[in-house]
Design a protein that fits this description.
single chain, globular, about 40% helix, alpha/beta, Rossmann fold
């Protein structure tokens, strides 16, 4: 069963999400699906992951970050901090709905935010990341430059101990695989899979299917 819901971010703005629960039992695990910059809750990766989790009786919550899709906010006010806060507020909202066991999947910028959120939250039990980091364009913009220079998500990784899978393409020209390796090395319980020849979006259908299956399988194994 899918339900469109709205919840508030820290500033009181409305964020939109799709809560999908195949059993309608709030006692089952739930996975937050976090899209990348300029993407949305209906991204190809999110929809594919939702389908796999649903088949395995795991709920999902895919939502539009601040100033994306159906969520409120001004584009010029986007920042790493806004993304991280959105994830933390989503967890708070889902806890009020009765959910207790959380996993998280993050793609690109959403993966970056997922790592920082995991470093600040004790509710997340497992994390899977697809090419996490900041792209060639966004890293030079005023609202993101400081975080990129400081590599804030890699520093945050040193404070994350939950099982984490990082999937990255060797031919990624937006978020270099070197950053994925740095993140993996910073985390005590991480595992990295590098897809030879894959780009940032895993545009090859076989790469995309395998990436999604790996991420979902890793989350399912640890939530069970």
């Amino acid at each position: 069963m899918e339900q469109k819901v709205f919840f508030d971010n820290e500033k009181g703005l409305k964020l939109c999400g799709i809560l999908s629960n195949p059993t309608e039992d709030e006692g089952i695990p739930i996975v937050l699906l976090c899209h990348g910059l300029n993407s949305g809750k209906d991204s190809t990766t999110n929809l594919a992951l939702e389908c796999i989790f649903s088949e395995n009786d795991i709920a999902t919550f895919r939502f539009d970050f601040f100033a994306h899709g159906e969520s409120e906010g001004a584009i010029e006010d986007r920042s790493v901090g806004e993304f991280v806060d959105d994830i933390l507020q989503a967890i708070t909202f889902l806890k009020t709905c009765g959910y207790e066991d959380f996993g998280i999947c993050g793609s690109s910028f959403g993966g970056l935010a997922s790592v920082i959120a995991a470093s600040r939250n004790n509710d997340l039990l497992v994390m899977a990341l697809k090419a996490p980091g900041m792209g060639q364009t966004s890293r030079h913009l005023p609202n993101y430059r400081e975080d990129f220079i400081a590599k804030s998500w890699i520093t945050a990784g040193t404070r994350v101990s939950i099982p984490t899978l990082i999937v990255h393409g060797s031919a990624d020209k937006d978020v270099e695989v070197a950053f994925g390796k740095m993140l993996a090395e910073s985390m005590v319980s991480s595992k990295m899979e590098i897809f030879e020849g894959a780009d940032h979006r895993f545009t090859d259908p076989q790469d995309s299917k395998r990436c999604t299956a790996l991420m979902a399988g890793f989350i399912i194994d640890h939530l069970r």
